[in-house]
TrEMBL record:
It is found in: Membrane. Keywords: Membrane, Transmembrane, Transmembrane helix, Transport. The chain crosses the membrane at residues 197-221, 233-250, 262-289, 309-326, 338-357, 390-411, 423-443, 463-480, 550-572, 578-598, 610-632, 644-670. Residues 695-713 have a biased composition (Basic and acidic residues). Its main location: membrane. This is Xanthine/uracil permease. One of its GO terms (molecular function) is xanthine transmembrane transporter activity.
Amino acid sequence: MASMTASRVHTATTPVHSTVWQNKLINECRSRGLRAPNFQECSDRRGGRTAWSSVVEVNGCKHQARYWYDGDWVNNAREDAAEVALQRMGVVPVPRGPHARLLGSINVADLDRTRGNTIIDIMTNNFKDDSPDTIGPETTPKRSFSEKGRRLIKAFTTKEGLVGDYDYGFLFKPQLPFMKRARRAGPFFGLNDRMPVFLALLLGLQHALAMLAGIITPPIILSGSANLIQADQQYLVSACLIMSGILSMIQISRFHIWKSPYYVGTGLISVVGTSFATIPVATGAFSQMYATGFCPSDADGNHLPCPDGYGALIATSCVCALLEILMSFTPPKTLKKIFPPIVTGPTVMLIGISLISSGFQDWAGGSGSCSSRPESGIYRLCPTIDAPHALPWGSAEFVGLGFLVFVSIILTERFGSPIMKSCAVIIGLLVGCIVAAACGYFDRSGIDAAPVANFIWVRTFKLKIYGPLVLPLLTVYIVLAMEAMGDITASCDVSRLQVDGATFNSRIQGGVLADGLNGLIAGLCTLTPMSVFAQNNGVIALTRCANRKAGYAACFWLLIMGIFSKFAAALVAIPSAVLGGMTTFLFASVATSGLRIISTVPFNRRNRFILAAAFAPGFGATLVPTWFSYVFTYHGSNQALEGFFNAIVLVMEQGFAVAAFVALILNLILPEEMEDEEIPELTANTIDAPADEEEWRHIRREDESEKISPVKS
């Protein structure tokens, strides 16, 4: 980038040392009742040149100023930060420092308008972030249509716009024992920084691959639980990929609701995928549907395809999505008070644990009817006796295939390059598919019969509200809202944006609202609830790219994958053992996320009691899911009453729902207590108490003597 010279506002004021301007800014903020800035939060950023970044906190919001300087780091950067902050607050401008090189999305015209070459976000009570594109105060003019056109043409017609000077080798360099690690981290791309087109497409592909396994797993498992035909399974995988791209655009774009303080979307790289929380509820509901006759079975008791059951699932989820939409208008602080980590942590952890059993069944050959190892019928071999290379459930060949996938994921994480690490699950799946294809486990008939292109509503399902699913799905949407809040907070953190204040709260509100709307839209598009994915935060941290252009590129790749249905057909044809090795790792990651949430809670006596009380029925219902199946013995003609009983049974058989309910109630009724100090006066040991008390008093006297003793120079 060529060096630029911005127009400067000169006054009679003479330049002074940077600390003077820092003190002046601090005093100015305090006089206005704002929080004093912190100039110590700075870091060097190197990428061929040296940059300096300062984070200024005013009124709880982080003001980011980024500079690129020729040569070494210079001391006038802090002076510039203070100067510009004072200018934006209406204080008399001062002479600017010497040259500076800009990293970001501002050109020379923008520099002239903003009286400097500094990007700084001033977010006070008078400034509303109406659009993620807003990078300054509301006085900053928006670019004209012709200017946007010139920038777009330059991006696709120049080397700088297409590839830039980014170190692409950083993404592909493996971490082998004999190779040296890079001493300098790559440049960080902020929310709206300029970035080359090719780099945006490359990092977008990385995001798409990182979430691919999580997107395709729920439709494959749910369609298998409902025993849908192969064409329906392929359609659901394609539709999930397409809708993930479309709904992710809603979250990334962030729309302002007209004449209201509310938003739709986060304005971050908050990608959307099919929720795992629906899987245990849906699989339990399908089992109940087959048991009650809602779904058909043949004379031998084998389950037949049940598209009506799947239609009942998505219709009921549409109605229940209204709960999360209403929750989005509740202040985030209130939601966090009702659903703190002591409630959400065990819930997320038990969701992952309950899913691991399904992944392990697939690892051994399949989670369908063949898992019971019948002695006769088409399911005596997995997946069926007509499949190529069919084997009994639990065969060594199946276990070996899943183990190969699992080990490949571990090796990729250890030795892979940054772009490989974020796609470790997909690489493990690819290795397993290659070996399975070479050994003859793939059935190509579905791939050959699949159409070239696909889209939503190509196949539809009969919609019907299924009463027993209402209560469990309401619990699911509460969990999704809490997960969304945690994921959005993590996205702001890795994107180097504020994690408190009005703008952050608006991102939480917009993200939860978009999450609820996405669940409603997904149901209308024949899909189960879709929610914000967390694994892409790791991609942001690994690649140091929080730019929304990479997010839009990920949406583009997801749309391409979904529209070309041959890709979805190939995913559906993956052997269950290969898929199980991958999904087991994914589900364990969900459980680990819940464990991480729990780790943020102080382990005092009250919280330990709540966790124990929640885990007792939660783990019990997860390990013995039929424990509540025989409590109600009603067999009358009142279908409404029978449906209500079935709903209670379905909730009680979900370990995460039981744990969430117990933890929520106990957290509200148990008072906060201070931990007692372990001093002799509070012990019950009357024999050793006198000696302990004397020792305690001796320690107290030593501490007091140290406090009053003079400090030696």
